[in-house]
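User: I need a structural model of Transposase InsH N-terminal domain-containing protein from Paenibacillus albidus for a docking pre-check later this week. Nothing fancy, just the predicted structure tokens so I can convert them on my end. Input:
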Amino acid sequence: MIFLGYFYGIRSERQLEREIQTNLAYRWFLGLGLTDKVPDHTTISWNRRTRFKDTNIFQDIFDEIILQAISHRMVGGRVLVTDSTHVKANANKHQYTKQMVLQNTKDYVDELNAAVTEDRKAHGKKP
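Assistant: Understood. Predicted structure tokens for Transposase InsH N-terminal domain-containing protein:
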């Protein structure tokens, strides 16, 4: 589930829960039927913060997916490039700057932790 959040840029575990409830492709990917219950956002958060703390599980899953893509000749395995182009409205197509942005799974998990802390404060809960 956290992989889906990372891959599709879902920055909140509550939002991830809602997306999985309504998106059939996510349900199929996770092996959930139409009537299967989606884990609560607190379960997702607990697993991420406690069960998988101090592990490389997220990086290992990502690496395995890349290796499978290489073995099925979906990628060459030499260079992996993703596109995340941000263009302002009414921007001149001939004036732009190329910029490389690096993000790893640790940054994503840190963002999730910050969002959980902020949400707990907003609901008057302990950090």
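Before docking, keep this in mind: The mean pLDDT is 82.
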